[in-house]
Write a structure and sequence with these properties.
With about 375 residues, the protein is of the alpha+beta class. The protein is built from twelve helices and 16 strands. It is globular and about 55 Å long. The termini are far apart.
């Protein structure tokens, strides 16, 4: 039995993998009608920061894992002290929960990235910006996702409202705004015994700070550069002692170098293509890894996989478009998350596998357009 904290689409897709493996999944969900609760039979309602709710999840469970990082670190440390198998562990998860902690550790590991500094006030931000050049990127150290908590500022006053909300001893993260030609992601999994397997490096296309498309493998990426990116991911997984799936988001710079941007220690949007496009999906691999089972093969099933996210819809229910989608794009694999429609919300994704990236991208985008009511 695997206990998972979180009731969104990631836990929903973990359940699909758990069914095939014969693994019992129990999910702590925020809403009895939410995405995961619709498909996970064992889905008690509770908050991730409620110690009693998290502890009640553990009866009979072999391991505790997560579909998001927003679980109090002191609670996780207390569970570990009680002998609970928390995977990834609290020490590893701290690097996904706090971007300043992450940057410090990545620097110690020699991982390439932008120049950065913790800044507690506008004066510190001004010194950093004057040093590396304006504009700069400012991030909240904790709690950001899908573009939230990230801001490009042209001068030292651009984050005054965030500075005003900082508590004692808190800081923001300032980063050099690096020129890049595209964004890449390395997805890999690691089990407690140390076995690591990585999927091909992918290209991610972001719109308004949200992943809109994933192209697997990254078109035209030099094999040596791809190998370097995977090696960086493995260095991070081992250096941070990650258990489970790790996503490493990167920039490809104009000179071909890479720079690490963000980390996630769970299944990730950049890996949704693996459900239909790889021998082992990221969701099955995550379950294998946290149970310390041998990891699955990560080879692609086809030369090309393209995943396009469904972000909002003009339809009250995107399933209304299924007859049109399935008739027009029979190769499209549609994954809907059972979420209430809201502007820009991740409602599902479509994956198309094939031999040609342009054709697969056109088919996946066309299917998503129909699901959006266009």
């Amino acid at each position: 039995m695997i206990a998972v904290v979180g009731g969104g689409q990631l836990a929903r897709m973990m359940q699909q993998a758990a069914v095939g493996l014969g693994v019992h999944l129990r999910a702590l969900v925020e809403d009895a009608g939410g995405s995961a609760a619709q498909v996970v039979p064992d889905a008690p309602v509770g908050r991730a920061d409620d110690a009693a709710a998290v502890r009640s999840l553990l009866a009979g469970a072999d391991v505790l894992t997560f579909e998001h990082e927003h679980v109090p670190a002191d609670l996780l440390r207390a569970l570990e002290a009680d002998g609970v198998a928390v995977r990834p562990g609290s020490a590893a998860l701290a690097h996904a929960q706090d971007k300043i902690v992450m940057r410090r550790r990545l620097a110690e590991l020699g991982v390439p990235g932008p120049r950065w500094a913790p800044v507690a006030d506008a004066a510190a931000l001004r010194r950093f910006g004057d040093d590396v050049g304006w504009p700069v990127v400012v991030k909240t150290a904790r709690g950001g996702y899908d573009g939230k908590g990230v801001r490009v500022v042209a001068d030292a006053t651009g984050a005054d409202d965030w500075f005003g909300g900082l508590g004692a001893g808190e800081e923001l993260l300032a980063e050099e705004r690096v020129p890049f030609v595209r964004e890449l992601a390395v997805l890999l999994a690691r089990r407690p015994s140390g076995e690591v397997r990585a999927w091909p490096v992918v290209e991610t296309v972001q719109r308004d700070g949200i992943c809109a498309e994933v192209l697997a493998p990254a078109p035209g990426l030099d094999p040596a550069r791809a190998a370097e990116a995977v090696a960086v991911g493995e260095r991070i997984a081992e250096g941070l002692d990650v258990t489970g799936v790790l996503a490493v988001e990167m920039f490809e710079l104009p000179d071909g170098r890479i720079a690490v941007n963000e980390l996630a220690m769970r299944p990730h949007n950049s890996g949704h293509w693996t459900i239909d496009g790889a021998t082992t999906s990221q969701f099955e691999q995550h379950l294998r890894a946290v149970l310390d089972l041998p990891l699955g093969e990560t080879a692609p099933r086809a030369p090309v996989s393209v995943m396009v996210n469904l972000l909002g819809s003009a339809l009250p229910d995107p399933t209304q478009a299924l007859p049109a989608v399935l008739a027009a794009h029979p190769a499209a694999r549609v994954h809907l998350y059972g979420k209430e429609v809201r502007p820009g919300r991740k409602l599902g994704h479509v994956t198309v596998v094939g031999d040609d990236v342009g054709a697969a991208r056109a088919a996946a985008s066309g299917a998503v357009a129909l699901l959006r009511g266009e």
